[in-house]
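Build the 3D complex.
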Amino acid sequence: MRKNIHEIRWNPLIGTWIIVAGHRGARPWRPTEKPSEAKTCPFCPGSPETRDLGEWDVIVLPNKYPALKPSAYEPPKPVEDIYASMAARGYCEVLVETPKHTGDLHDLSMEHMLKVVKKYRDEYMRLSKIDFIKYVAIFRNKGKEIGVSLVHPHSQIYALPFIPPRIIVELDNFRRFYRERNECLLCHIIDLERERRGDNRIIYENRDFILVHPYYAMWPYELHIYPKRHVEAIDGLTEGELRSLADILRMTTAIYNGLFDRDMPYIMAMHNSPCDDDEYKYYHFHVEFYQPYRDRDKLKYRAGIETGFWVFTFDGNPEEKRKELRSSCFKVSDKLDHMGECVE
Ligand code: ZN
Ligand code: ZN
Ligand code: FE
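Done.
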């Protein structure tokens, strides 16, 4: 028996890659639940992981239990019959957003958040240049409801040797739309939403971005951040646009926490274009937020119909959910410094 099996296997039934990481089975579960346990937090200043880094405000650390490693061995070939595998080569990083043990993105000052956004951009650019990397997945998990093991504010970056299936689906749809209409799908959607009168789906807007509760939301409080200008990936944003992105990210997490006046869990996924050798001019960069609650005290679970069949039910009235998000936007905008406007 190979104890620390580590490879990427092809699932021929759905045509996707699975990362098999034996060593991740030993990962600890929520080692720093309470702020009083900050002294054991690996991301707090003074921990063995950060001790030698001097003064810092935003840092990138290697993931202690990486799903992918740059030095991963090549799995034995050939595997049985039609089964396929490849080396689990890649990079898994943790982007620690602040030396402070608790809080969320909106608890960071605007200038600090801008540093975080620039770090996202820098890591995307750095990892994109590595020849075997085809996709840089930047994401942020928050809250025990979605299984986050560390409360210290952090995002994660996976540099993958393949394009993730969800991105492949989006690319196919963007490409088809572009071929048929000679127009970008998301540019079209942005125009549609901005021209809409009554039951506006835009919750917040600054100079360069809109925050939308999409018509096609799968989660009741799902929110998307769309850049108004057509840009494929975060490295195409100007200095001013990066600042606007920092602003709208802070507003988004503030809106979530303002919904029920408590710390809310969420998943953030940055959808950038891939970084293999192909061209993705038809793709439009955006950020998606999924929130596991469907109401104040009710969690929405990904169960049989969602996991077993990939069919989502939106449990709620989209107009009502929008109303809640909008009133949270107006409420938090009184307290938080921001660059744009909540949309009526
Ligand atoms: Zn900490
Ligand atoms: Zn576009
Ligand atoms: Fe997307």
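The longest helix spans residues 239-259.
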